[in-house]
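In the design runs reported in the main text, the only information available to the sequence generator was the tokenized backbone. The following block is the verbatim input for one such run; it is reproduced so that readers can re-run the procedure and compare outputs position by position.
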């Protein structure tokens, strides 16, 4: 398994709907915890999870040629 840096900067939707929901939920929880515990690492991880969940694109998944988005979920809303 090799990591492709050139593919990493190419924007492709590669996160499925179920994983988007998980990322948004876990990211929101981490953001809430970071407010009360004042942990910067939780804040950063929460922001990353929320951003990748909202956009539907993960640069690490692109680099490793991973795609959790199934072919049937190519809706305009999603």
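Verbatim output:
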């Amino acid at each position: 398994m090799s990591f492709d840096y050139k593919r990493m900067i190419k924007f492709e939707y590669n996160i499925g709907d179920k994983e988007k929901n998980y990322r948004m939920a876990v990211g929101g929880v981490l953001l809430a915890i970071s407010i009360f515990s004042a942990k910067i690492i939780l804040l950063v991880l929460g922001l990353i999870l929320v951003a990748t969940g909202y956009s539907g694109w993960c640069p690490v998944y692109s680099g490793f040629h991973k795609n959790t988005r199934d072919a049937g979920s190519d809706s305009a809303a999603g």
